[in-house]
Amino acid sequence: MSKTAPVDSARMFRNALGSFATGVTVITARAADGADVGVTANSFNSVSLDPPMILWSIGKNSSSLAAFMQAENFVVHILATDQEALSGRFAKSGTDKFAGIEVERGQGDVPMLKGCAARFQCRTAFRHEAGDHYIIVGEVSDFDHDDHAPLAFHGGRYGMFVRNDPAVPGQAPAEEALLSELLVRAEDGLIRQIEDELSEAEISLPEFEVLRSVSDSVLNVEELEEMAGPGLDTTILVLVEDLAERGYLDAPKGGPITLTEEGEAALQGVTLDIESIEQAALSTLSPHEVALFRRFLAKIVHSFEDEAEG
């Protein structure tokens, strides 16, 4: 039997392994000459709780192999979702991977990256040759972890984990509902609360949209009319005149419209209230689920905008 699989078989094997979702780690150590070394690895795994032990593997062709084969200490960093760039940086060879990175120092003066989901300081316990890799087993001497969501890797791409919530009895699965229905119901609930908040400030939703538009850039009435969305069901000119009479806008005829100090204060107060409403509505989601939700909604919005422009 051949020890080397055909190229196509090796590729298929690698693709099959990619079906297994993993986290992403960066392993750091100190070389014999005192240089900091680090590599990206998704081969990290737990081995034992008593004593606490972990393992990971490094390829025989890695430029950092010699350093890890002699290092007495190393640190495993489980990367957070916002550390994808670190994964890419430490996956490369032939560069100063630590340039511009502020690190802490652990046992054996090993560099420790900040902002990770978890970090494990280890003493090298065993090294085992395994095919084209070496398996390195470490005994954990210290560790720390945070609430940062971990970075995920699956099928050659980065991602993030989303919990699979159990079905609620008597409630139809979200997958069976029309997306448009869910979006409308969510919008109705939010708009109703926002309008209640705006009414207390004696500002209508169309007036709020005008204040927001003016705060973002210097506009005249014609430019505001071009930007008018479905919420602006009253003519822009009437809205601008009303807000100017109440001291919220400075709107000289034919000139640029700007917020007054009173307008800025009113907009800031209402915006904070609306942000509180949004946070309450999203309170059942984790921070990375909120990030995903915003990203997916933005994609939907952009697809409609691109279609309209096309």
TrEMBL record:
Keyword Oxidoreductase applies? yes
Checking PANTHER family in the record gives:
FLAVIN REDUCTASE, FLAVIN-DEPENDENT MONOOXYGENASE, REDUCTASE SUBUNIT HSAB
- Asked if Oxidoreductase is a keyword of the record, the answer is yes
Q: Which UniProt keywords apply?
A: Oxidoreductase
Concerning its family, UniProt says: Belongs to the non-flavoprotein flavin reductase family.
* Family matches, as Gene3D superfamilies: Electron Transport, Fmn-binding Protein, Chain A (2.30.110.10), Winged helix-like DNA-binding domain superfamily/Winged helix DNA-binding domain (1.10.10.10)
Q: Where in the numbering of this chain does the Flavin reductase like domain appear?
A: 17-160
Pfam families linked: Flavin_Reduct (PF01613)
Please give the Gene Ontology molecular function terms for this protein: FMN binding; riboflavin reductase (NADPH) activity
Native source organism of the sequence: Acidisoma cellulosilyticum
Which superkingdom does the taxonomy of this entry point to? Bacteria
What protein name does the entry list?
Flavin reductase
Q: Which InterPro entries match?
A: Flavin_Rdtase-like_dom, NADH-dep_flavin_reductase, Split_barrel_FMN-bd, WH-like_DNA-bd_sf, WH_DNA-bd_sf
* UniProt cross-references to SUPFAM superfamilies, sorted A to Z: FMN-binding split barrel (SSF50475), Winged helix' DNA-binding domain (SSF46785)
